[in-house]
Amino acid sequence: MKVLITPLVKNERISKNIYRLSVEFYSKIKPGQFFMLKTTDNAFLLPRPISVNDVNENLISFLYRIEGEGTKKISSLHENDEIQIFGPLGNGFELENLKGKTAVIGGGIGIAPLLYLCKALGKKADVYLGYRDKENMYIFDEFKSFVNRCIVVTEDGSFGEKGFVTDYVDYENYDTVVTCGPEIMMNKIANNCKAQNIKCYVSLERRMACGIGACLGCTVETKTGNKRACKDGPVFDSEELI
Amino acid sequence: MANLKTNFMGLKFKNPIVAASGTFGFGEEFSKIYDLSILGGICSKGLTLAPRSGNKGIRLWETPMGMMNSIGLENPGLDKFISKELPRMKTYDTIIIANLGGHCEEDYFEGIYKLNDSNVDAIELNISCPNVKSGGMAFGIKSSVAYDLVSRVRKICRKPLMVKISPNAENIPDMALACEAAGADAISLINTIQAMAVDIKNKKAVFDNVYAGLSGPCVKPIALRMVHVAAKMVKIPICGLGGIMNANDIIEFVMAGATLVQIGTANFIKPDIAIDILNDLEEFIDTENIKSLDEIRGII
User: Is B176 a domain residue?
Assistant: First the structure.
């Protein structure tokens, strides 16, 4: 694996504070893996861990939300500007573990990595997408051709169903659940799955410095001791987590 | 052709660039990115006698030109290091230094005995750990406390011994002298600077431990001063670290008196940065027609 300095093919705003950035990349990537992204100046020191949103032949895209100065700086880059990318990192989703009827549940920016996953699952999954409101929605329409069913929920009901995405999942219909989003949402989903004896995989987000398992900044407590979100995750069997 | 070979504590380093403790794990992850034999050496993740699971809560925080960490010495313990990590590290064809911490003198002594019997090349003694017997004040704050610890460690330590000095020490020149008098073969400085971050939305400190260690380019001017001050005081060689990002920074540390240097936070910023730094360092000394870094060491 190498650190690449590569020109941006695109970096465009697609929703209120959400941008899609694409670069050329020529190695295999698993759904759920991420890259460490950084501007080539040292305006901000630490690279930002950003999940892979989609892969189209040799073009990969990342979706990121402007959270602080680092992501804001990345959003200011233009086409052909150089960016430092390092990856793919993390375990990603094991497709062979996602058995039977599968629900893919995303909330907020956690929806980003689920598009590539749904594509890989091949029309098998029902996807549940939770957004704050219509203004903050993004890529929901891109899921439709890759999933069995697409349910959109907004907290204020300004689009699709109203409320929390967790209110709309009929767990008994599924053998496996995959989720990525706010921890409070994933916790609720993991608890529901446990109660109904459904396999549940969660993709976690953590602060990271190295992205490869050396700095121990992104530790996750599990039943078998500390694990690293960057190297042992970001995808975990929810049963493993404390 | 640039000659960067460096003798330090009786060990022959290929070049003066060493990966700093806590930023490089045990090398395994970085060995998949580049050939670690280009490095002068590697300092292991900070080790303790027993395994430690580290601190809870947020462990990392970025600051302007730096970062703070509060990892809490998470490590697998010395036995596992010696049986599992060290044999692999020894295949990297570079000098392997074990960074050893402890929370009481006995921890350090037992750790030294275990490392004496291993094939590690040298020991870096982390004296920034809180001493449980003196209310949690780190061993490295008061020179007299550090002297007691280092001299007792020295008596039993059969490996080259480098003491890592904390910038939080009450008096850097006294501390450097105390370590030298206690029999250290070298000193390394600086460890991270104790610092603080506040989460104003939640009206609390960012870190569960309130204070955390600051590193990165923002600490370099302070590190340079401390290396310079220490170099004027002691005859034992100095390993300088603190915010080194490129070859020019290394030259600055060498001119301030360092023999060896460590790269820490920079490993996070670009994981293969040591390759760039080494190439640039070779180019610099060729361009400047410097035959050996000895020519410019401590010239300021």
Answer: yes
How many separate domains does chain B show? 1
* Rounded CA Rg of chain A: 17
Provide the CATH number for the domain around residue B104: 3.20.20.70
Question: Which CATH number is associated with domain A95-200?
Answer: 3.40.50.80
- Crossing angle (nearest 10°) for helices B220-233 and B247-256: 30
Q: How many CB atoms lie within 10 A of CB A175?
A: 12
Short-list A11, A12, A15, CA closest to A139: A15
Per-residue pLDDT of chain A (242 residues; tens, 9 = 90+): 899 999 999 999 999 899 999 999 999 999 999 999 999 988 889 999 999 999 999 999 999 999 888 889 999 999 999 999 999 999 999 999 998 999 999 999 999 999 999 999 987 899 999 999 999 999 999 999 999 999 999 999 999 999 999 999 999 999 999 999 999 999 999 999 999 999 999 999 999 999 999 999 999 999 999 999 999 999 999 999 97
Interface of A to B at Cβ within 8 Å reads 1-3, 38, 42, 44-47, 70, 84, 86, 207-219, 225-226, 231
Residues B29 and B131: their CA atoms lie apart, in Å, by: 32
Classify strands A199-203 and A176-180 as parallel, antiparallel or unpaired: parallel
Instruction: Say if B274 falls within a structural domain.
Output: yes
Domain membership flag for residue B282: yes
ipTM: 0.92
- What's the domain range around B222? 6-54+72-192+215-295
Question: What is the pTM assigned to this prediction?
Answer: 0.94
Q: Could you state, in order of their start, the residue ranges of all structural domains in chain A?
A: 3-89, 95-200, 204-242
Write phi, then psi, for A82 (nearest 5 degrees).
-90, 150
The architecture (CATH level 2) of A204-242 comes to: Ribbon (2.10)
Question: Which residues 108-167 on chain B approach chain A with CB closer than 8 angstroms?
Answer: none
Q: What is the CATH number of domain A3-89?
A: 2.40.30.10
* B210 within some domain: no
Dihedrals φ, ψ of B180, to 5°?
-65, -45
B239 is catalytic: no
Distances in Å between the alpha carbon of A6 and those of A26, A233, B6, B280?
12, 26, 36, 21
Tokens of B104: 């009481």
Out of B43, B104, B129, B218, the active site residue is B129
